[in-house]
Fold these 2 entries.
Entry 1:
Amino acid sequence: MKKVVVTGVSRGLGLALSKALLAEGYGVIGLGRGESPAFLTLEADYPGQIAYVQADMTELHALSDIARHISKAYGPIYGLVNNAGIGAAGVLATMHQADMEKVIATNLLGPMTLTKYLMRAMLARKEGRIVNISSISAQTGFHAMSVYAASKAGLEGFSRALSREAGKYNITVNCVAPGFLDTDMTEGFDGDQLASIRRRAPLGLPTSEQVAGAVIYLLSPAAASVTGTVMTVDGGSTA
Ligand SMILES: NC(=O)c1ccc[n+]([C@@H]2O[C@H](COP(=O)([O-])OP(=O)(O)OC[C@H]3O[C@@H](n4cnc5c(N)ncnc54)[C@H](OP(=O)(O)O)[C@@H]3O)[C@@H](O)[C@H]2O)c1
């Protein structure tokens, strides 16, 4: 059974992705900062396929020990999906410095640090898949999302460059960039904003399950030669 580490499995896309991975036969080592009861209930349908490790992506100094624990207890690890993230809507001029730093720590520094430590065993084994969850906001400007967009654009640059040093070790590094998803992250969007976002998507807005499908592909044998790319799943919003 190939094992995949997924961050942010408590809800939203991370939970949907965990279900999809389990259904495909992967073992899922879920990371989250709370108790994640919804993730843990998946054990009933997929006994022996899940494990849960508490980790806060902003506690960067702890990620080395967490990665070591994961490799020792559950390794070898085939894949890593950096999914945990926060949105921080707000115009830059009035955004608190602490909020800006939290977005960058959660969405960029945390994933880079966890990748650094989990990737070491992949390098030694000469096998691995890394998928970073970006956002269409990395490439398309949206009002009041500059810091979030910067974190995701950083993640895309990180993935592209890392794919070059990882490739010779048979490790791929890619991003999946979802459009608007109906999760807790977007619950603050008002009706007008939502209507305009919906109008922009000729195929309709994507579901978390459809985004999970892109991740499943990037982890699959069919994607062995795909690296350094961004797969956009946005119903055509940015076409
Ligand atoms: N929703 C969208 O429209 C959309 C669009 C494009 C990209 N994305 C990206 O998709 C990913 C998943 O987002 P979502 O929509 O599923 O959001 P969500 O429903 O708000 O879930 C976010 C997940 O990240 C976890 N998380 C947040 N901060 C964390 C931290 N410091 N340490 C560990 N885990 C942390 C949360 O855990 P807790 O339960 O502990 O808070 C939760 O599991 C994110 O990277 C997001 O940027 C979302």
Entry 2:
Amino acid sequence: MTESKVETVLITGANGGVGRLMRPRLAREGRILRLLDVVRPDPAAEGEAVELIEASVTDEAAMREACAGVDAIIHLGGISVEAPWSDILSVNIDGTRVVLEAARDAGVARVVLASSNHAVGFYDLDDAPADGLPADVLPRPDTYYGVSKVAMEGLGSLFHDRYGIDVTAVRIGSCFEKPWDRRSLWTWMSPDDGARLLEACLATPEPGFRMVWGISRNTRNWWSMEAGEAIGYHPQDDSEAFAAELLGDAVDDGPQGPEERLAGGKFCSTPLGEHQK
Ligand SMILES: NC(=O)c1ccc[n+]([C@@H]2O[C@H](COP(=O)([O-])OP(=O)(O)OC[C@H]3O[C@@H](n4cnc5c(N)ncnc54)[C@H](O)[C@@H]3O)[C@@H](O)[C@H]2O)c1
């Protein structure tokens, strides 16, 4: 990007939890954030360079319009928990196809896809080599939701190979203000690290398709940081800062049972296709 050029980044699902955490953190001089969601995002704060679009990622015409003049897309929009297959199919799988087709038609060079640990939820921590479970390990989805993230990754790979779009699929752990239980002590990605990771994705020098874990530099990590580091993602936060507050004086006897040992946690036993929230 030259100094005078304004960069426009389209964020789908901008009104969701991750979108709201990223909105202030991705704001930059010379950058416009175009915020799209089915629920209209909050109006611009004073001095904020944002554009607001109320639309669904499944709406082909709206997505074509939303992609006009866009340099990069961060695709967060969709269903973020288990849900009936027909909803998952339409919003998460077909919606991702619509986003990528609109990106191609508009000549958008870069797309970041919000994949998930639930694409690989059935890996047990004993499956991880000493240097951590690789970010591109084969899928083992734990729900229909997880299957949609595998499809998202496949679509990202397809649109890179066919059309040369730079695509990074981020297998996000848990991006929230704070970790809240023992499992989240290794799945956590701090909001600041989330923004660091997205900036790294937006700055990859060579077009490619890659998968990275979306986690912080947690003491308890068992997922490899290598692929993230290769694109310049150097997380700075560690959930261990919250461990004493979360675990109290209880003896910390390590991960117990499938909910703590499996990458996908309780999603691995949630009834398939039932609304989770
Ligand atoms: N939060 C995490 O830790 C986490 C972990 C793994 C993956 N992810 C993925 O990251 C993305 C963002 O997660 P989140 O926690 O912010 O989820 P969220 O549910 O809080 O937000 C999702 C947003 O997408 C919007 N949306 C739903 N359907 C849409 C549609 N058809 N068109 C446009 N927008 C639509 C919703 O209105 C909502 O604002 C999701 O794709 C989720 O699967 C998040």
